[in-house]
Amino acid sequence: CKPLFTICVKLFDIKALFLVKLIAMKNLIADMKANRYVAGVRQVNRHLLEKKIKKVYLATDCEKDFEKKVLAHFKTCGVKVEVCGTRQEFAKLCNIEVLCAVIGILS
Length: 107
What we know:
Elements: H1 2-34, E1 37-39, H2 41-49, E2 53-58, H3 64-76, E3 80-83, H4 87-94, E4 102-106
Parallel strand pairs: 2-3
Antiparallel strand pairs: 1-4, 2-4
C-alpha cells in the first residue's frame, strides 16, 4: 500500500509541475501579444541597461551555469524572471531560425 501511495504522490507532483509550466507558457504568449519583446541574451541585456525590460522568460533547457548567471544578473537588476518553455519553443514564438534562451518583455 505504501509504494502505491508514493507513486501516486510522485505522479501528482509531475502533473502539478506540468500545469505550472503550462501556465507560465500561457503567460509568456499573453505578454508577447500585449507588449513588445526582444529575443536573445544580447538584446535583452542591451535593453536592460536602458531600463526598458520589465520581465524576462528563461528557457528550461539552457545550460545550468548559464541559467545561474542569468538568474542572478536579472534578479540583482530587479527584473522578474520566469523559467518555462524550451529554446526551440522560444525560437518558434519569436519567429526566428536560431535557438533562443531568453525573451525580454519591454516596459
